[in-house]
Specification:
The chain has 232 residues and is an alpha/beta fold. It contains 9 helices and 10 strands. It has a 5-stranded mixed β-sheet with strand order 7-6-8-9-10, sandwiched between helices. A 3-stranded antiparallel β-sheet has the order 3-2-4, with no helix packed on it. A hairpin with a 2-residue loop joins strand 2 and strand 3. The termini are far apart.
């Protein structure tokens, strides 16, 4: 079946009859879209879906809502949570709701993602569903070549940031080693390690039995035995 992509207000053929969406003023975009999806129809409604976030419950969303209205957004999802908060229920609902051809719009990247890497991961999820993304402030628009280029730049910046972090980490470890301050990560030892190894040393159990009791591999078991022997 040929499902032509159309914008709101464009005529549809529905049960072999032609209707216009503006003929149903009392019917919201959300409900009409779902009704169409349940029946046999020709045509796909493309929605502009907006995402708004403010850091606290007390903050006002009116400024962002006005922008969404100016941009012709038809469905809005609002989260009231810190940008560092990974629990954003409305964002998850929006990601689940959007369909191929839809466009997700936000006021700025800082409202949509926690950081550059988070932005790229979210856009990747949208792209996998054939959904476009627009961030008004940064002029990122994946429906245009220039917008896609901007996103590529953000990806390069994120990778550069990651490399800088790893480089500083390596340099810091090297300096700490030279000063004799670096001891590496603290080894995780099973709480019953001393008790079990004591039985092993006394010949009450075999090494294989000791490993099974603590869920350790042979390498980990003997490495810990050696390390504790040195400390002792």
């Amino acid at each position: 079946m040929n499902r032509n992509r159309c914008h709101l207000g464009v005529a549809y053929r529905y049960y072999q009859k032609e209707f216009r969406l503006d003929s149903f003023p009392a019917c919201g975009t959300f409900h009409f879209r779902r009704e169409l999806k349940r029946d046999n129809y020709i045509g796909v409604i493309i929605l502009k879906v907006g995402y708004i976030r403010v850091s606290t419950i007390e903050q006002n969303t009116i400024r962002q809502e006005v922008l969404m209205q100016e941009l012709g957004v038809e469905q809005i999802y609002i989260d009231k949570a810190s940008g560092k908060n990974t629990n954003r229920p409305e964002l998850n609902k929006m990601l689940d709701y959007v369909r191929a051809g839809d466009v997700v719009i936000c006021e700025s990247i800082s409202r949509f993602a926690r950081n550059t890497r988070d932005l790229l991961e979210l856009v990747e999820k949208l792209t996998a569903k054939s959904v476009e993304f627009i961030s008004k402030k940064e002029a990122i628009d994946t429906t245009t070549p220039s917008g896609k280029f901007m996103l590529t730049i953000f990806g390069a910046v994120a990778e550069l940031e990651r490399e800088y972090i790893l480089q500083r980490q390596r340099e810091g470890i090297e300096i700490a080693k030279q000063q004799g301050k670096y001891i590496g990560r603290k080894a995780i030892v099973h709480p019953d390690f001393d008790k079990v190894t004591a039985k092993w040393k006394d010949g009450e159990i075999s090494a294989a039995q000791a490993m099974r009791r603590m869920g350790m591999s042979k390498t980990t078991f003997y490495r810990n035995v050696k390390r504790l022997a040195i400390i002792g």
